[in-house]
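In pairs, describe these two lines:
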Amino acid sequence: MEEYEQQFTPRWLGVAGDDHTPSVGEWEIYLTDNSSFIFYGMEKFINYIPPAKLSALNIPDCSMIYLLDLAETSKSFTRQSKLDVRKSENFLSLEKPVETAMLVSVTGVKCLMANQWHCTLAENANRLKVSMKDLLEGGKTTGESVRLLFTPHQRVQPKTETENEKAPTPEKEGAENQGTERSDDMRPDEKEIQLDRSWYNMVCYGLPNLMVAQV
C-alpha cells in the first residue's frame, strides 16, 4: 500500500498495523463513508461486525469490498475455536464465505472480492500485492484481477533487454533446417504448469467490470 500512497491512497482512511482493534461503530463508518473497503486481517471478517449489523447497513455508494480474511495461524485458530463454541449453529452458518457474500450483497455493494477458505499470511500478502498492482497500476477490472489470480501463468511478462536485442537465427537448408523447425516448435510457454490451490481461493461476486479511478 505504501507503494501507491502518493498517487492513489493519500485520502484513504482506516486502521493499519497494531494501532487498535476498531469497534463495530468504526467498521460501520469505514463501510458507510467510503466508495471502497479493504479488509486484510486474521480469521473471519464477520467476527468484527456481527451479521445483524452488517445486513442492516445501506451502502449503495460503496462500490467494492475486498475481503482478504481467513488468514490462519495456530494461535488464531485456537482463539477462533473458543469464540465459535459459544455461538449457535444458525449463527455460525451466517459466517461461512458464501453466506457472508449474501449479507454483503444485501447492503447494496456492487462488487465483493473475498476468499473462500483459510490460507496463510504469506498467501494473503501476495494476493494483496498482486491485486493492488492490477487494480491500481494496471487499470484492470475487478473480474480481470481475479481471473489473473486463477491463471498467473497467462499474465503478460515484460520483455527483458536481452530478449528485445536477440536477433532471429538464419534458417539452414536440408535436414539441418528440419531439425531447426522442430526445435522452434517447442515454446517456453508450453512447459507443464504446476497448479497451486491458493490460485483459486479468491472469488468475485457481483459486477466484474469495476475499475479503480484516481481521485
Notes: The two ends are 16 Å apart (CA to CA). The chain has a mean pLDDT of 84.
